[in-house]
UniProtKB/TrEMBL annotation, chains A, B, C, D:
<keyword id="KW-0456">Lyase</keyword>
<dbReference type="InterPro" id="IPR036409">
    <property type="entry name" value="Aldolase_II/adducin_N_sf"/>
</dbReference>
<dbReference type="InterPro" id="IPR017714">
    <property type="entry name" value="MethylthioRu-1-P_deHdtase_MtnB"/>
</dbReference>
<keyword id="KW-0028">Amino-acid biosynthesis</keyword>
<dbReference type="InterPro" id="IPR001303">
    <property type="entry name" value="Aldolase_II/adducin_N"/>
</dbReference>
<comment type="function">
    <text>Catalyzes the dehydration of methylthioribulose-1-phosphate (MTRu-1-P) into 2,3-diketo-5-methylthiopentyl-1-phosphate (DK-MTP-1-P).</text>
</comment>
<keyword id="KW-0479">Metal-binding</keyword>
<feature type="binding site">
    <location>
        <position position="110"/>
    </location>
    <ligand>
        <name>Zn(2+)</name>
    </ligand>
</feature>
<comment type="pathway">
    <text>Amino-acid biosynthesis; L-methionine biosynthesis via salvage pathway; L-methionine from S-methyl-5-thio-alpha-D-ribose 1-phosphate: step 2/6.</text>
</comment>
<dbReference type="GO" id="GO:0019323">
    <property type="term" value="P:pentose catabolic process"/>
</dbReference>
<keyword id="KW-0486">Methionine biosynthesis</keyword>
<dbReference type="GO" id="GO:0046570">
    <property type="term" value="F:methylthioribulose 1-phosphate dehydratase activity"/>
</dbReference>
<feature type="binding site">
    <location>
        <position position="112"/>
    </location>
    <ligand>
        <name>Zn(2+)</name>
    </ligand>
</feature>
<comment type="similarity">
    <text>Belongs to the aldolase class II family. MtnB subfamily.</text>
</comment>
<dbReference type="GO" id="GO:0008270">
    <property type="term" value="F:zinc ion binding"/>
</dbReference>
<dbReference type="InterPro" id="IPR050197">
    <property type="entry name" value="Aldolase_class_II_sugar_metab"/>
</dbReference>
<dbReference type="GO" id="GO:0005829">
    <property type="term" value="C:cytosol"/>
</dbReference>
Length: 225, 225, 225, 225
């Protein structure tokens, strides 16, 4: 049932009924994210909400490009592990926040690219503004390039509960996820295929933005480092 | 009959008589374009005109790096789907325009790279001018590096019919395809192998141009963003 | 027993008892490093200390992305080959220095990336300072991004014994390995999985630092070349 | 006998006696060069001189990343095809020049990377000077990083015979091959493994040089484009 290595994404739909299919989808998405350099070291995390409400999420500490079924655990909407001994990542709360706020959300992805990390550490505005790109049409409700999408940037915080309260204020406006400074992006969709597609679109745009920034007059040193 | 994953391009010739061969060629080209980062999210599209005149083109919305035979539909020269329920991409018209204008065209590729996107959003001229590169010899009629090829850049437009009328004015001069600002490149050839080769040559040159631009004095901010 | 090409890292744990498992882990790590461009030409080296104290290390001269079991030899803590005719790399001493100084060390990796090479040749300070990155948490004892890690940079020296004496002075403070100017990074961990993870984290951060440097006002020519 | 896709380089030794082994080595080297982006479109060429003096070289026009045995033909030291109907690339003369000048040469590689193309079009000196890099030790006779190697840069010329006369003047001094402006690198070795290793080393260094150039004050526009 698993697709071939270069595979199609058809198997990783979020309306899968069984745990095994959800785990397979997460493993495959992890490979894809690792191919692109979006889960360096043990960074990043991936989750799916099954039709019956169970949440499958990557456990703390493993490399997300090399997942096995042991690397995926079940948590409740409160972020707590459903089985004794399972240790969820602290960032689980950010996944659960999406599932709670958006009844429609079926998959959440947290990636950690060079572009997202560098851009978020360089800009001083509270958000990245993306406009005139055709790829903007991959995000929810977008039908034209003649638009401006805002991707909020939040300061990193080891107190995830506190961080999630900042995120909560802006969730309704987010069309292309959000970024945590020096820490990466969060993006979601009704199923894994859509979430991965939106992540790919966002990372493509962040890479374009970083390249364009390199062509601008230099940013003063105090703003970059 | 399909080549191996790392395969040769010998099977994806445009003079294939059967639908299945054309679909296989499109799927393989999609993999290649995805490997190179030229079909991010659901961007890009690929088509082949069979010897009997049928046009096989990627349907709207799917990821072009993970195509299956379901992802390829038949359209007429007017861009309309031949089978009930098939939904072609709006950009189908741009493929059909090439087939109509060039009796010799057997495959059309629309890719969406970072280099093409960034360069087209940065330059103010109506075209990119490529000269002195040995790789220029991969385009039609080119036998030397001592030449200057023009790649026209058109403003993006959600009204594809209107966009195609702008494109029409310059088609005869195009030797290395064209670019839609913030949206990617269109390039073609007598068969898929040639079209892919020309796309690869064009993307290589665009990457070189972007790298050279980074070594120039900075472009004023109002021109870049 | 070997994992698949896109495999999980679960087999390359440092507490392997047998030589064959250690060799397999080294070969697999070499593939991963080669995929990422960290062992160009014949550069780089990889080692594991087995539970029984034997040290398996890549021999001199071969390409570390294409290792076979012949490419891995046994050395003692003094860096000398255990079997007649085996030729260890001169850099073996730097691996053995780690094993001697850190009783806990189970694997040492020397990678040779563009980012490490360029950064080390450009900066004038005696170390790279990494702060505010979430990925800093992948290194030993790090639990927050709100920290500053120092990665010492040593001048290259063909006299490895002399080089190791400079390194010795700073070993206790190193949390993210060290860099040899124009020559690459050294990093380690209790097992191969951890060492590879830390290498990946370090290379990610070095790439971010290089990208940020490109956004700064230009460095005077005398400092760069 | 062929190595696996991610394979070891052990099969592509230049002392192979048979034509089939030489062809297999060329095909495998072509895959490796294509993976790295060094044979875009139909650019680049690869050759091996067998122990019996026969020269196997890639024919004109095909994509060097997707070679089959049909894509490799036999030529004589004068560059002419040994079999009726075979069409060698014009650049065959440059391969034969190496084999004539260096009795020891067993393989010649012509690659076409972004770094080589951009650097050669940007610099005004007649050569690239590489110093202080540890990777310099991969070239013939080099035992230290404390050296400066010169890689001559020749103007491109569609008259290959004329170009080869310029090259001839400097062949004896070349330790790391040479570059043709806007056209790529030529490098060689006693066998394919060594030639590929040296090509990889050279491309690594060219990439480092390009990255360092990006950190310098901007080059005046008239010198870059």
């Amino acid at each position: 049932m698993m697709s071939s290595a270069s595979g199609s994404l058809s198997v990783i739909s979020g309306d899968n009924q069984t745990w095994d299919l959800a785990v397979a989808a997460i493993i495959q998405a992890g490979h894809r994210m690792d191919d692109r350099g979006w889960v360096p070291a043990t960074a990043g995390n991936l989750s799916i909400r099954l039709a019956d409400g169970r949440i499958a999420i990557t456990r703390s500490g493993g490399h997300k490009g090399f997942l096995t079924s042991d690397g995926v655990i079940e948590v409740g909407l409160n972020g707590e592990a459903r089985h004794e001994g399972d240790r969820p990542s602290a960032e689980t709360l950010l996944h659960c926040q999406i599932y709670e706020h958006f009844p429609n959300a079926g998959a959440v992805l947290h990636g950690h690219s060079v572009a997202a990390t560098v851009l978020s550490m360089v800009i001083k505005e509270p958000a990245l503004y993306l406009e005139d790109y055709e790829v903007l049409k991959v995000f929810e409700d977008q039908t034209t390039h003649e638009t401006r999408l805002s991707v909020p940037v939040f300061a990193n915080d080891q107190n995830i509960a506190r961080l999630s309260r900042s995120v909560a204020l802006y969730l309704d406006e987010m069309k292309a996820g959000y970024i945590i400074r020096g820490h990466g992006v969060y993006i979601w969709g009704p199923d894994m295929t859509t979430a991965l597609t939106r992540l790919e679109g966002l990372e493509f745009l962040l890479t374009c933005e970083l390249e364009r920034l390199k062509l601008l007059p230099a940013i003063p040193a105090r703003d970059v480092m």
